[in-house]
Amino acid sequence: xxxxxxxxxxxxxxxxxxxxxxxxxxxxxxxxxxxxxxxxxxxxxxxxxxxxxxxxxxxxxxxxxxxxxxxxxxxxxxxxxxxxxxxxxxxxxxxxxxxxxxxxxxxxxxxxxxxxxxxxxxxxxxxxxx
Length: 130
What we know:
Elements: E1 8-13, H1 18-34, E2 37-42, H2 49-57, E3 62-64, E4 77-79, H3 104-119, E5 126-128
Parallel strand pairs: 1-2, 1-3, 4-5
Helix pairs in contact: 1-3
């Protein structure tokens, strides 16, 4: 399912490591392909909340980010082997985080699966791409 005309998306991002760069690139490519309006909010402080509030204040249809602590009713996550955890919320293991797992193909599939889920009103779930 494609986003409707005029769909507004905010990309919430932090850091410049290779995994983050791969995910950001995938979101930007998706946004161009789908002709959605994309704005980026970069988190420069210690907590994600410092970026989430400004992202929400832009009043987008969708906020895109990675590695949330858990899905809630308004959050949908897409994971795959080696990309189910990034950060201190869940201890990193070979199964939860491996930098080489962040390929352009996985990142592209994750953004498309996550957005399709949201557009079909399936939220608060974790989509496994394995």
